[in-house]
Amino acid sequence: MKSITFNHQNSSAIGIGTWHIGEGNNKENTAEMEAIKYGLDHGINVIDTAEMYGEGLSEKLVGQVIKNYPRGSFQLISKFYPFHATPKLIEESLKASLKRLQTDHLDLYLLHWRGNTPLEQTVFGLEKMVSAGLIKNWGVSNFDIDDLKELSSIKDGNNCQVNEDLYNIGSREIEYSILPWQKEHHMSFIGYSPFGSDDSEFLKIQPIINQMAQQKHITVHQLLLAWVLRNHDLLSIPKSSSIEHMKSNLAAVDVTFTKDELEILDQTYPAPKHEVQLNTI
């Protein structure tokens, strides 16, 4: 498994995303648990979940899996609703998540998206949870460049270790200013939905994708994931609902592109040349 520096640690090149996981029947849940186990057993050491996912069902399923693994062998990330972003509600949400996950701490706790609570209050609450030993670090999600700059300007705002945004070949908004800013400030980046959304609103598969995947003897999904990972400078968190999906994701880590291939893809899916609004799912 190739590795990257993420959250100031040596981490796997991909993580395990868990959106919609844990919401099915027993057969589906069993397949999802086996997929997570397979990933952990084959070098993946980051799991990303949230209290929003199935209103806690994702966290419960993850908890069933990770209780059988040494806690220090993986990084565990969860996220809280923006309407739980006051110090009191952060603590309540966090303790509920820890109970569902059957663990005593998170490696990262993220504000899922920005709401009406002033960032100063949210940061104060998160710093309090760090001091209590319930989280090691904290971060944000779905933050645009202006949000990140505002966060960095408040007390302890520079302690933010991670921002998680939408990123795939059809949604490249982060490349213009967000990624460069985060690199300058030593803040790790997580890209979610490398395959786009369920309804393909944010990623239209053009013929070149199918053609190039066939030429490289890989699947379309593997090409899309490999493209996100091409610079080895961020963490992508594809969901895997079966061992077959997990194997496919793991194999995508080793896919490479020639300079000509990347130029062709850039022509079809161009990077932004100016500041554009950040898309979210």
TrEMBL record:
Superkingdom in the source lineage: Bacteria
MF terms in GO: oxidoreductase activity
Protein name: NADP-dependent oxidoreductase domain-containing protein
Source organism: Companilactobacillus crustorum JCM 15951
Residue ranges constituting the NADP-dependent oxidoreductase domain according to the UniProt record: 13-268
InterPro entries linked: AKR (IPR020471), NAD(P)_OxRdtase_dom_sf (IPR036812), NADP_OxRdtase_dom (IPR023210)
PANTHER family (UniProt xref): ALDEHYDE REDUCTASE (PTHR43638:SF3), OXIDOREDUCTASE, ALDO/KETO REDUCTASE FAMILY PROTEIN (PTHR43638)
